[in-house]
Amino acid sequence: MIKSLSNTVKELGAGLKRLSGRKSRSEKVELRIIPRDEHSISRSNISESALKVLYRLNKAGYQALLVGGGVRDTLLGLNPKDFDVATNATPEQVNALFRNSRLIGRRFKLVHVVYGREVIEVATFRAPPTDEHSTKIAATGDQGMILRDNVYGNKDEDAMRRDFTVNALYYDIADFSVHAYAGGWDDLNNKRLRLIGDPETRYREDPVRMLRAVRFAAKLGFSIEAYTAEPIPVMAPLLEQIPAARLFEEVLKLFLHGQALETLRLLREYNLFGALFPATEQCLRDDPLALAMVENTMRNTDTRIRAGKSVTPYFFMASLMWPPLLRVKDEFEAAGLAAHPAMQKAADRVMSQQLQSTAIPKRLAIPMREIWELQLRLAKTNSRKVTELLTHPRFRAAYDFVLLREQSGEDLKGIGAFWTRLQEQNPDLVPSRSSFREERSDNDSRNDGGRRRRRPPRKRNRRPPSGN
C-alpha cells in the first residue's frame, strides 16, 4: 500500500514536471523592440571581430545577435570588456563555419572564435529542458543547481533563460534594433538589477548569480531590486557547492573592475564575503585593524585601476589573507615557536583553509608567501645585509605591503620610512617594476578571470611503422 502510494506520488511529480516544462516553452515573453534612432549603439562601438562573426553567421543563413553585457554596457556609455554572440546555429555548426574556433564546455557547450588576443564567445539559443531530454543534455542537482544545460531553442526562450533583465538585451545587426525582454529596457534606464523568474529558483540553479548581482550593482551603480536581493543572505551557503577554482575566477571579476570597496560592502551586507574568505570575515567582525587593512586594500586597488595601472593578484590576495595569517602566527608564537617557523606554519594553515573555499593557483601562492616572509626580514633594520634585501625580486611588493600595513594602523616602528630612505640612497639596487617577474605578474592580473587562448597540442614526429 505504502509502496503503491509512493509510486503514485512519483508519477504525479513527473507529470507536473512535464507539464511545467511544456508550459515554459509556450509561455509568452515580454519583448520590446527599440529601433535604431532610439538607442545609442552603432557599429563603430562594436568590436570588428564581433562584427565579422555576426556577418558570417548571417551570411550562412543563421540568426545571430549581440547579447548580454556587451549590449548593456554600450547602451550605458561604457567600454565593454568583450562581446558575446547568440545564434540559432548549433555549436558544431558554428565550429565548422570558423577555422579559428574551438568548442569548449560540457555543462554549457560554447564556441570561442579567436582573433589574435580577442575571443568572441558564441552560444546557441537555450530553452527550458523537459523530461524528453536525457541527462547527457540537461541535468539538475538535488538542490536545483544546473549541472548541464544544452537544450537548444529560439531567441525568446533564450532570453528567459538569462539571469538579469538587463542582460536579456539583444542587438540585431540586420536592422540595428535592440530587442529587450522582461522589462530590461526600463530596468536599464532606471538602473535597477532584477532577476528573470523566481529568485530562489534562479539562485539554486547557479549560486554564482548571487555574486554576479553584487558585481553588477557595484560596477554599474545599480540598485538590486528588493525581491531579487531578499533571498541572498539566507542562500549564501549554496556557494559551497561551487568548485573553488570557479570561485577564484569570480573573485578576480568581483574586485578588479574599479569598484572593489563598494563590492566589499555589498558582499558583507549580503553575507557573501564569508563564503569566499571565511577566515578573513571572522577577523573583520572583531578586529578594527583587520577591517582597515582589507578596506585599504580595496581602496588602493580601485585607485590603481582607475589610473590605468595594473594590479598584481598575488599582492591583492596576500593582503586579504594577512589578518587571519597574523592571528594564527601569533597563536604559534604564544605556543613557543620562533617568528620564522611560526610564519611558515601559519601560512600553511591559512592557505590550506582558504583553498577549501577559493582556489589559489601556485603561481600566486608562492609570491604571496614570499611577501609574508619578507615582512619579518624588513623588520630587521639593524641587519648588516639590509642593502642586499633591496635586490630581492619581490622587494618592491613587500615594501608596498609594509606601507599598506602602516596605512591600516599597524605600529611597525617606522620601518616604512627606513626603507623609503634606503631606496632613495641606493636607487640602482632596487629591481625595476618592469622586470620580467613583475611584468609576468601584471599580465596575470589582466588575463585571470578572462578568456585565454589555449595552444593546440604539439605535433610530434612519429617514426613510420616498420614494414616487417
What does this entry show, briefly?
The protein has an eight-stranded mixed beta sheet, with helices on both faces. The protein has a two-stranded antiparallel ribbon with strand order 7-8. The protein has a two-stranded parallel sheet with strand order 11-12. It has helices spanning 2-26, 48-59, 69-75, 91-97, 155-161, 184-189, 199-205, 208-220, 226-229, 232-235, 244-255, 260-269, 273-276, 278-286, 288-306, 313-334, 339-355, 362-378, 386-389, 395-407, 415-425, 436-447, and strands spanning 31-34, 64-67, 84-87, 101-104, 110-115, 118-124, 138-140, 146-149, 169-172, 177-181, 192-193, 223-224.
Walkthrough of the structure:
There is one protein chain. The chain has helices spanning 2-26, 48-59, 69-75, 91-97, 155-161, 184-189, 199-205, 208-220, 226-229, 232-235, 244-255, 260-269, 273-276, 278-286, 288-306, 313-334, 339-355, 362-378, 386-389, 395-407, 415-425, 436-447, and strands at residues 31-34, 64-67, 84-87, 101-104, 110-115, 118-124, 138-140, 146-149, 169-172, 177-181, 192-193, 223-224. It starts with a helix and ends in a 21-residue tail after the last helix. It is an alpha+beta fold. Mean pLDDT is 85; it is low at 1-27, 133-139 and 434-468. The radius of gyration is 26 Å and the shape is elongated. The strands form 3 sheets. It has an 8-stranded mixed sheet with strand order 1-10-9-2-3-6-5-4, sandwiched between helices. Strands 7-8 form a two-stranded antiparallel ribbon. Helix 17 runs antiparallel to helix 18 (362-378). Helix content is 52%, strand content 10%. The protein is built from 22 helices and 12 strands.
